[in-house]
Amino acid sequence: MHGKLSIQSKTKDTDSKNLLKMKELSEITEVSSGTIRYYIQQGLLPQPYRPHKNMAYYDESYIDKIKLIKDLQQNHYLPLSVIKMIIEESGYDPTKIKAWLNQSEDFSWFESKMEENGVESMTKEELLEFSRIDPEDFHAAVKYNMLLPDKNGRFDRESIKLAMFASELRKIGLTVERGFAIEFLVLHYEMLEFIARKEIDVFAKSILNNDMTAQEVQELADKTLDIAYQLAPIVHRRFLRKFLNEMRMNGN
Question: I need a labelling partner for 189 at 20 to 30 A (CA). Which of 20, 35, 102, 195 fits?
C-alpha cells in the first residue's frame, strides 16, 4: 500500500546564522509559503522563532520536516489528518515513521490508531488519496451506499476501511479487465446487510416475550453483536473453501 520512505535524517545546527526566512525555506523545499504556514496552523510543524511580532525565522530542521510531510502526502497518499497523527506519535524520525507505515498495512491496527488519535473522518479528496481506490469504483460504491458520506460530505472510519479493501482487491488482481466490477464487492455488502436485518428480526422476536428492561436488552444486543461479528468471517471462510474445493473437483 505504501512506497519506500525516502527522507534521511540530518544533524542540525541551530546557530542563528543558519536561520532561514520564509522565502528561503520555500525555495529550498519547493513548497509554497502558504502551504508551509498551513502546516504550522494545523500543528504539523512547530511554531517558528519570532524575535519580533512580524518577523519569523526557521532553523534548518524545518527543511527535512517539510520534505517528510511532502513525501508522506505525495508518495504514501496520506491526508494531513493522518500525517499529523503519525508525527504526534513518532515525531519526525524516519525510522519510526517507516515502522509506522509498515504496521499500517494491517487494517485492524490502522483502525485502532485512527481511533486512538481521534481521526473520525475524511473528505472525499482525502479518502481517494489515502485509500487509492479507483475513482470509478469510488463513485459506484457511493451509488450503492457502500460508502456513505455524512451531511458534510465526509466519510467515517468504516467507509475509509471499505475503500481500502476495494483498493486492495484491485491490487491483488480482481481487475475490471478480468471481469470483476465493483459489484463483486457490493454483493458482499448487500448480502451482509440482508443477514444483519434477519439477525435483528430474529433477535427482536425472541425478546418480545421476555421480561427485560431496556438496559438489559441493550446489553444483550451489544454482547450478541460482538459474538456475531467474530462468527461471520469464520463461517464465511469455511463456505468459501468448501465451494472452491467443489469447483476444483468439478474441473472448473
Answer: 102
